[in-house]
UniProtKB/TrEMBL annotation:
<protein>
    <submittedName>
        <fullName>Uncharacterized protein</fullName>
    </submittedName>
</protein>
Amino acid sequence: MNDVFRLDSDRSAYAFPLPDERLHSFVENLLHTRGLDPKPVNRLRDIGLDDKACCSFEIDVDGDAVCLLVIPRRFSRDAMTADHVRRYGRKAEALGLRFLAVPETLLRASAASGRDAGAATAVKADDRLRVLDHFLRHGSAGLFELAARLEHENPVAAILELDVDGALSIDDGILSSRSRVTLAGNGVRP
């Protein structure tokens, strides 16, 4: 059972695994390098999340506080996690909070990322952070709108690689200029 992302009211009395300290440090350093000042999230308890049981930060984006929740890779494709994150998002929205759940795979590549297709589609950290920056400021994006923000030699292939890696989700259907890209698995926009 995925205890990390369960609501406090759903959680049983037994101990649950705490988030990986390395992930917490990695994300905190990453946000600092992008000029963001990550702070502990004080309002997570308002939506039912245990702030000590997840990798989360409050950051200032264009004068607005955003609760950033990083979903560890091991949970990023878990249906129960996605359901819980959607509930957190609805609760945050009802309280007037900006809430963004980000898969860890958006912030750092998996060991196998880009390996099958070759280095030409590997997405570098700077481009991953450009995608994060876009979602923090604007929410979902058109495929080509998001690709235009990247410095990758083949930006559409980079977006597709992030989709395959589980970081992004491209709406169903044929890829076209109307295709929408969202963060994978959470359905929550700031």
